[in-house]
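Q: I have two molecules that I believe assemble together. Could you output structure tokens for the complex as a whole instead of separate predictions?
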Amino acid sequence: MAVETNNKLVKWIEYRLPVFSFYRHFLVEYPAPKNLSYWWNFGSLAGFMLVVQIVTGIVLAMHYSPSATLAFSSVQGIMRDVNYGWLLRYIHATGASMFFMVVYIHLFRGLYYGSYKRPREILWFMGVIILLLMMATAFFGYTLPWGQMSFWGATVITSLFSAIPVVGHAITSWLWGGYAIGAPTLNRFYALHYLLPFVIVAAVALHLWALHQHGSNNPLGIDVKGPQDTLPFHPYYTVKDLFGITIFLIFFCYWIFFDPGALLNPDNSIMANALNTPPHIEPEWYFLPFYAILRSVPNKLIGVMLLGLSVCVLFLLPWLDTSPVRSGKFRPIFKQFFWIFVIDCVILGYIGHLPPIGPAKFYGRIAAIYYFLFFFVILPFVGWFERPKPMPESISQAVLDKKAKRAGTEKA
Amino acid sequence: MLPLWLAGKVFRAQARGPSKRIDLLSSTVSGTPPAHPEGEIKRRDFLFLAAGALTVVGAATAAWPFIDQMNPDKQTIALGVPIDVDVSGIEAGQQIIVAWRDRPVFILHRTPENLKTLKEPQVVNDLRDPDSKQMQQPPYAANWHRSINPDYLVVVGICTHLGCIPHLTKAGAAELGASWQGGYFCPCHGSKYDLSARVFEGVPAPLNLPVPPYHFVDPKTVRIGANPKGSNWSFNAIEQI
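A: Yes, here they are, computed for all two components at once.
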């Protein structure tokens, strides 16, 4: 795809490194299905949040000391002394929550519209790998302020590895670099927290590469049949994505400027103390559903395995869902189980937040059972027995039918 | 092990018939089709495998320093020496927490009533490992009170579930119900232990709290981290912290 220009510099560069045609191909002409809804905004929003986190993170690193004696006070210094330090830290800290929120919506959208189905399995895998990398990055980052919740959260999560038979103990002491979480642990977590976002960038590149191979899925879940079904990415979707980012920024700014404390834990304003566990430990909200699954099992090894499985099951999704129909729109039974699943995840999150005693434990178990039931029983069986609703012939046909229908009702 | 396994796999494939991969490689390198009869192992195949094995072994060797640097360093290990603790000031029913190897160690001065609960069937029947069969204590503490002197319980105060510090919770504590006889309760995930730090059934923690090596230097002083004379038990032998 040649670039039409008379600019000599552009031509000179283009001949040696075709960046301009690459840019045109991927961001301007790239044909996207014409029926993408606002649920398709969350991919670009996630990319936006990744950039926000990297930029604020690099700036914060200029003022932070990754040593056990200085970490806590250097974060206080960022909040009080560094020019706009409070703003940068609040963007970064609440930004982590925003990033996960956007990615979870992106993920549920993929689940509802069957975006993981053939031929987008590897695109989906890259997404799950990005999610795992994000979880690791968020966990390392949460340790850095070296408050009580940082310290004890890190203790609980690294101790998950002690459940591994025989070598568990060697692994934890290798991870800690000591007899327990301490100064060496903080240093290495800082190094990894700086590294992983760039690994995420590489994974996002592969994610986009896979996306552009077959193009975006769409709310109807049917394949693009020709140019009548698509629109060029620019200006149609660049404008739509920018509008989405604007609305999202309003929401994001509310947390940054008016309620950053809601997304932070007050126990983390107390410096880490190895001899005192806070009365109630809980992870950040975006880990709560998985945490509730861990807690609902009265056996350590099985609990840890189910925790791992609860995320890794997403890798199996393309094969667990046996239905050939992508979009949940045409799957009346799947649709109901899907919404129960969404509610189930919210319930798990709420239970992960409650102390681990009383009826919460019982309801947590039921919610955890449904979580796995959904993937391993409901998805395969519904795919076999469900009778999908009739589907439109093409994307443009569906759009035209809708228009005709609307015109008809207006006339009547 | 990995290069040996790979070599074995390829050689076995060779013995069965021509392997596509090897033939492709040898013909690309030489530029002429192999002159040897099919199925024979060629000199070039051997060289290829030997070079591959050497690369894998070399890479693994070079990687080791990068992996091992994360293990506890000499200073950290040197700071893990035994410590002496004066226990004469602990009143009956009280507990102190001291730090040994960056970990909290509970020293609980148990009352006669406390010790009575350790044998009560109501408690014992609900324990996972009432007789301390699992290696979570030195042999000299593998008894019904899990200690050298029953008056003093010495355990590492790290929940065997996920590493939180359980709280000493008195009998009849509201959140644990009327049948609670006193013991340890972990706030993180709800694990429970009795007053010998033996874990209850139906909680996520799998094992009793570990007893470190220790002995009484004199009736008032406990030395944590060193066995009594005649024992050479290693703390690394425990199942899990």
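A: One point stands out. The longest helix of chain B spans residues 43-68.
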